[in-house]
Write a structure and sequence with these properties.
The complex is a heterodimer of chains A (439) and B (122). Chain A has 439 residues and is α+β, with helices and mostly antiparallel strands. Chain A contains 13 helices and 15 strands. A 5-stranded antiparallel sheet of chain A has the order 5-4-8-7-6. In chain A, strands 10-12-13-15-14 form a 5-stranded mixed sheet, covered by helices on one side. In chain A, strands 1-2-3 form a 3-stranded antiparallel sheet, sandwiched between helices. In chain A, helix 6 packs antiparallel against helix 7. The longest helix of chain A has 50 residues. With 122 residues, chain B is of the alpha/beta class. In chain B, 43% of the residues lie in helices and 20% in strands. Chain B contains 5 helices and 5 strands, in the order βαβαβαβαβα. Chain B has a 5-stranded parallel sheet, sandwiched between helices. In chain B, 39% of the residues are buried. The chains are: A alpha+beta (439), B alpha/beta (122). Chains A and B meet through helix 6 and helix 7 of A and helix 1 of B.
Chain lengths: 439, 122
């Protein structure tokens, strides 16, 4: 013993040595010592035993348990981590009964002690219906992939239910690791958001319906204003002082502007309320372009602008709402005339990768990049439009964009200040084709 | 004076007056009705050469009045022009489906309305 002390094997302070030695000798005399852990000076831990042999001898054993102690410590820490976790964690046996549940798991399901659930089947924590659903939707995937996660509705001990995220992972012995997270709060937030969205949509529909009704109601008195004005100007009610003609012309111009506003607001509100239906009839593309050109030619002539058309000899039949597409073209050509002081306006149609492309290009003032980003929004015009008194409702492009999109097409603009603008409409040639279906 | 007779079906006084003033000064004889039911009765009684039919009308709307007039063999030949502020896509088709022969959207230009009337009455 003295020898091992000199070798420095035991980690015992010098003043405790005599006491230690007497204890040990006493134990050996008694012939039995319960397994005792001893720390050696090199950090190892040994388990010391003393066993009395039948011949009166003693067998002392020293078993190195350093590794075991280390593993024990790691396990203790892991267990503490699991117990401290906010998510519920459980280990299930291969026959799907609970082997271990952490504190959070018990709390989430409203239980007090692990003993209430250990050895019980997982099905206890779900309603019959939910259990069936999990068995048909979740478990097959778990057995196939070794893991599954999804949402489930849990059944608390007091009978109340709550939504939670659950993930299941198979472990080597055929058992399962189950992790659950209560998502009641998230669900409540999502529900509140959903409801707010429904309210907003409903309010928007009410607004659009109101606008549609109002637009319709406004047309009736406007008919009287414009009608009487024209009859007066035409001299139906007798001659008028010269000055009156000029005034009546202004009444008429303003009345027509009001009418354009009412029409556009009506269109836009119908579109936004989802009440504008788009027909899908075959139409002739050159016919569509020529109709629009013919209607706009007088306006172009007034400003001495050349109105060009460029159509290939062969163009396939288009499909869509010809009246509405004409409205789009009239709007684009009208804008081009409005914002071009000299030069030409060219309408081109061609087929590109299964798409019908119609473009309206001009040599006008052009549109700044900043303005390009918002001209398709309602009540936006290029910043120079209002101050320069070019008129228009500011709704034409917004309406055009929506009409083209209702045809599963798109509209875009290419422009540079002082270099003119080109608006391009792309429509699918396949009548029912959305963009993805074609490309 | 053409002596041709036109029935104006319209519930708004101002719009009636505009058409009355316009068409009388152009030499037509005018009859007036304020709702769809009156329109049918007036058509049967006066046998006009042309009917200007508003669509949104009390009692019986212009679509239904047109349908009933067109269903009557004695009146079937009378052309009907729908004059309506339902100026939406598909409204003209609806008017034609009800038997109307022409369609004018409100607000209308009296000059254009007169031109359309003359087309029908030669």
């Amino acid at each position: 013993m003295e020898q091992s002390r000199e070798l420095g094997i035991y980690d015992i302070p010098a003043d405790g040595w005599e006491c230690y030695k007497s204890h040990r000798l006493e134990e050996i005399r008694n012939g039995h010592v319960a397994p005792t852990d001893m720390r050696l000076r090199d950090g190892k831990i040994v388990q010391y035993r003393c066993i009395a042999l039948p011949d009166g001898g003693r067998m002392l054993t020293y078993f190195d348990i350093t590794q075991l102690k280390r593993i024990e410590e790691i396990l203790r820490r892991h267990l503490a981590a699991m117990e401290a976790a906010m998510d519920g964690m459980a280990i299930l046996t291969p026959d799907a009964t609970y082997e271990y549940l952490n504190a959070a798991h018990l709390r989430i399901f409203g239980y007090g002690a692990p003993s209430e659930l250990i050895g019980k089947s997982w099905g206890m924590l779900y309603s019959d219906k939910e259990r069936e659903r999990l068995e048909t939707e979740g478990l097959p995937k778990l057995f196939r992939d070794g893991r599954w996660s999804g949402e489930a509705v849990g059944l608390r001990r007091d009978g109340s239910t709550f939504p939670h995220d659950v993930s299941l992972t198979m472990i080597q012995n055929g058992g399962l690791i189950c992790v659950v997270r209560d998502i009641s709060e998230r669900h409540a937030r999502e529900e509140a958001l959903r409801e707010a969205k429904l309210h907003a949509e409903e309010a928007n529909r009410t607004k659009s319906q109101f606008l549609a009704n109002m637009s319709h109601e406004l047309r009736t008195p406007l008919n009287a204003v414009l009608g009487y004005t024209e009859l007066l100007r035409d001299g139906l009610y007798g001659p008028l002082p010269d000055k009156a003609y000029g005034v009546l012309e202004r009444v008429q111009a303003n009345g027509r502007h009001l009418l354009a506003l009412i029409n556009d607001v009506l269109d836009l509100s119908k579109i936004e309320a989802g009440e504008l239906s788009i027909s899908c009839e075959p139409f002739s593309v050159p016919g569509l372009v020529r109709t629009a050109i013919a209607a706009m030619e007088p306006l172009a002539k007034i400003k001495a602008l050349e109105l060009r058309v460029s159509l290939p000899e062969e163009l396939p039949t288009g499909h869509g709402d010809e009246r509405r597409l004409t409205q789009v073209l009239l709007n684009l050509i009208g804008n081009a005339i409005k914002f071009t002081e000299a030069g030409w306006i060219e309408v081109t149609a061609r087929v590109l990768d299964g798409w019908l492309q119609i473009s309206v290009a001009d040599t006008g003032v052009g549109i700044s990049l900043e303005d390009q980003s918002q001209i398709f929004d309602a009540f936006q015009q290029g910043s120079n439009a209002v101050t320069s008194g070019r008129g228009g409702t500011g709704l034409g492009l917004a309406i055009s964009k929506r009409i083209v999109e209702m045809h599963h097409g798109s509209i875009s603009v290419h422009s540079e200040i002082g270099r003119g603008s080109a608006f391009v409409i792309e429509l699918p040639l396949n009548p029912s084709g959305a963009r993805k279906a074609v490309s | 004076m053409t002596g041709k007779r036109i029935l104006i079906v319209e519930d708004t006084e101002d719009n009636r007056q505009i058409m009355r003033d316009l068409l009388t000064s152009a030499g037509f004889d005018i009859m007036e009705a304020y709702d769809g039911r009156e329109a049918i009765a007036a058509a049967a009684e006066f046998k006009p050469d042309l009917i200007m039919m508003d669509i949104q009308l009390p009692v019986l709307d212009g679509y239904e009045a047109s349908r009933r007039i067109k269903a009557n063999p004695a009146l079937h030949h009378i052309p009907i022009i729908a004059v309506t502020s339902y100026a939406l896509s598909g409204d003209d088709a609806k008017a034609r489906a009800a038997g109307c022969n022409g369609y004018i959207a409100k607000p209308f230009s009296p000059r254009q309305l007169l031109a359309t009337v003359r087309e029908f009455l030669g």
